[in-house]
Design brief:
Blueprint (H helix, E strand, L loop, with lengths): L3 E4 L1 H12 L4 H16 L9 E7 L5 E6 L8 E7 L5 E9 L2
Parallel strand pairs: 1-5
Antiparallel strand pairs: 2-3, 3-4, 4-5
Length: about 100
């Protein structure tokens, strides 16, 4: 099912910073591909989507983590939750894995 992607200010800033850094073009491409997959299939096998137990959304929503990269030092992750509309998800952050 195709969904609309909403971005928090933090997620939009994370994506913009990644796009500005010419040394991370490959990572940007990986993040863009993962965002495209999230828009069509949040459970796509390459995303390795799973619930994040560490924190919740602004209204107590379950936060999920999707892989933009795997088996890479400081691999990028995308944190998101369902909503606010039934046909949308909200991207909370796009960050390197600690």
């Amino acid at each position: 099912m195709k969904v609309r992607l909403n971005f928090t200010l933090r997620a939009a800033k994370d994506l913009a910073e990644l796009a500005r850094d010419t040394g991370r073009r490959k990572r940007l491409k990986s993040v863009q591909k993962a965002l495209g997959l999230l828009g069509t299939s949040q459970r796509h096998p390459s995303l390795h989507t799973h619930k994040n137990q560490s924190f919740s959304g602004p209204r107590g929503e379950e936060i999920f983590e999707a892989y933009a990269e795997n088996k890479t030092p400081a691999a990028y992750r995308i944190f998101w939750f369902c909503g606010p509309e039934a046909d949308s998800i909200t991207i909370v952050a796009i960050t390197p894995h600690p």
